[in-house]
Amino acid sequence: MPPIRILLLALLTASAAPAEGRRLTVVGINDTHGALMAAPAPRWLMSKAGPEVGGADWLGGYLSAIRQEAKEKGGAVLVLDGGDDFQGSLISNQFQGRSVTEVYNALGVGAQALGNHEFDFGVEVLKERVAQAKYPLLAANVFFKGTRRRPGWLRPSVLLDVEGIRVGIVGLATVSTPITTNPVNVADLEFVEGGPAAAEEADALRAKGATVVLICAHAGPRPPEQEIQRVAEAVQGKVDAIVSGHHHVAIGPPPLFVGKIPIVQSGAKLQAFSVIDLALDGEGRVLGAEVNEGALPKPGGPQAILHSWNGEPARWRGRPVQPDPRVTAILRKYDDQVRALREKPVGETLVDLWKDREGDLLGSLAVDALRSGAAGGLPARFALQNAGGLRVEEIPKGPITYGQIFDLYPFDNEQFVLSLPAEAVRNALEAVLRAGKGPMRVSGLRYVIDWDRFGAGGNPRKAPDGAIVVKMTDAESGQVLCETKACAAGGCESACAKGPYAVAVTDFLANGGDGLRLPAAAPRKTSGALARDMIVAFVREHRPLGAEAPGHREERRWMQVGSAQRGHAER
Ligand SMILES: [Zn+2]
Questions:
Q1: Is 6 among the domain residues?
Q2: Which of 19, 53, 326, 498 has a CA that sits 20 to 30 A from residue 267's CA?
Q3: Which contacts (CB < 8 Å, 24+ apart) does range 69-72 have?
């Protein structure tokens, strides 16, 4: 088209719509959980992607390609993180997350949301990470209890100049934080509803000159809460896009929009990222958004951090991708310090150990270890382990390394043994189900979840004690420990053994994690043994795990009748 016609067209359209300006590309990551190193590709992706995906240095390579493209087209790039970054791997935990922050600094992260697991090493360590980071850690909805005062180390929002574009970023933490980190770490803090807090911050940022406002939120999309959608509804017309986290879901295809606001989330453990391309007008205001255009493996979904694709080197919109050597050097520096420990053999399994599937051998292994008294822990009659505390889905058959057990159980949780009547144990099993979480892993116990019999499935949150777990028995003697006879509006009538019984849990559960309310006055003991060390010792003592592996050839340890208006697993 000759230049004069372009000019004419521009003049004609100028009054109808603002002239199109630059493009702001927002790259979203979330729930890194210390997974800085490349990892085996998921089985469904392996045939096309090859043996490995992910790795912070490969993400760095993608970011270089994205920044190069933006530079050539006069655009700008901003990397936002949805939180939960430090907890979960040897290369992170051994340094209390310092390695992750150093890598994020090198990747040029623009801002990070405050995840629940950011508290896992305590607030003092978190302050060190905040001081180390060249980018802000944000949450607008966290206050000292009963006040509107924020902790000094935490900022609600930030206004950045991104290559000349004035971008406001609001952070949010999930309202479930107090029960998804060890509650003692956040005892003096209050996590209020995110939407109103974000709306207020967004207005303030616009008043200060932001033409684009984004949210990075550690809050997820799953029902029943749909926490992030609720946030998006509260900020319509004020916010342009949201990078979310917490539920470890890969959003899209198709992309998720609430009204005009796109919401991305990219799974977990740095295996993928999301891209929101915002088209801006001449004044830097958002005209429209495209989400995960041309992404692999599925356009419209997060882009997998591929090393190769169909046998060809990885590419980003036609540009070759190579790991970023600066990040590779940082990874090597830290990995050199943990490699020997990571690769240390601790045992062997003759069968694949899965969480949930095929007998839940992995869950049974962990909870049997917790009950066993291995590694100087205290032996107990029963043990309970929350499903969310087990962080890998599979340990394949073969040698088992310390690193694999670490990834399964990264938390430094201590074993506690509580003296409880049967009724309190039953109520603990119900508390997690009522909150929409996966069934508690048990050792020494069997139990029946019945959503139909007393109508608990219709509204699990309102179900009275005894309406969900209708029967609980001692696995060894078969003795009935608790059985529900009848339920009425006011509550259920059940017959439970008095006990008390020695019940092994972790300090996370003993302190009320996952919403558990164990009787505060119940006598408790601890040996100080870490649950993870107990699993390592147990695996060592039972090598090789085989046909006789704990849990193998058994019925599932819980039986489920009917279904509930399902909730979601907290991460
Ligand atoms: Zn989380």
A1: no
A2: 326
A3: 69/316, 69/317, 69/319, 70/23, 70/25
- What's the number of domains the chain is made of? 2
- Per-residue confidence (pLDDT) for residue 517, from 0 to 100: 80
Give pTM, 2 decimals.
0.86
Mean residue pLDDT of the chain comes to 92
Residue 189 has pLDDT above 50, yes or no: yes
- Please give the distance, rounded to the nearest whole angstrom, from the Cα atom of residue 262 to the centre of ligand 1: 20
How many whole angstroms from 220 Cα to the centroid of ligand 1? 9
Do residues 332 and 351 share a domain?
A: no
Cβ-Cβ contacts under 8 Å for 453 (sequence gap 6 or more): 470, 561, 562
Residue 111 and residue 33 share a domain: yes
Determine the distance separating the centroid of ligand 1 and the alpha carbon of 431, expressed in angstroms: 19
Torsion sign across C-alpha atoms 192, 194, 200, 206: positive
Q: How many angstroms separate the alpha carbon of residue 225 from the centre of ligand 1?
A: 14
Rounded distance from Cα 117 to ligand 1 centre (Å): 6
> Are residues 153 and 29 part of one domain?
yes
The predicted model gives 348-363 an average pLDDT of 87
pLDDT digits (tens, 9 = 90+) for 223-252: 888 999 999 999 999 999 999 999 999 999
The CATH number of residue 547's host domain is 3.90.780.10
- Distance, CA 444 to ligand 1 centroid (Å)? 30
Which amino acid belongs to residue 526?
T
